[in-house]
Amino acid sequence: MDVKIIPISGCLQVVLAVLTLGVAPLAQWIVQRGWPKTLDEQGLVTRGGKRIAWSEFTKIVRVRTQVTQGSSSTVEHFDLHSPKGKVSVAAYRLENGDAVLDYIWQRLPEAAKQAKS
Question: pTM for the complete prediction?
Fold first, then answer.
């Protein structure tokens, strides 16, 4: 399964690039290297090219971030941990994000699902 990212609007990218003197697009690229690119029965491949088997994942951590101070607006993503590194899955930024999370959840080892952070 190929994992596609929902693109940020071009206007917003230009504004962020100008306001941050080009740092925002670079930071976005660096962060997204740790996101999944493809998923299959053996494991996943990150956008940075790292292959990690399902059996190598040791825990999954749900990360919630409050995005506005006065209200209860939050976003969440999941961090999959393995000895080869961390893979972040932000379903809200992925096409068919819920299906991607479901696919991953079905293939993670039980020990990773039950590990406490």
Answer: 0.86
Distance of alpha carbon 40 from alpha carbon 37, whole angstroms: 10
The residue segments making up the domain with residue 89 are 10-114
Domain count, the chain: 1
**76 φ/ψ sector (left φ>0, alpha ψ -120 to 50, else beta):** beta
The answer as to whether 100 is a domain residue is yes
Question: One digit per residue, pLDDT tens: the chain, 117 residues?
Answer: 999 999 999 999 999 999 999 999 999 999 999 999 999 999 999 999 999 999 999 999 999 988 777 667 888 999 999 999 999 999 999 999 999 999 999 999 999 998 765
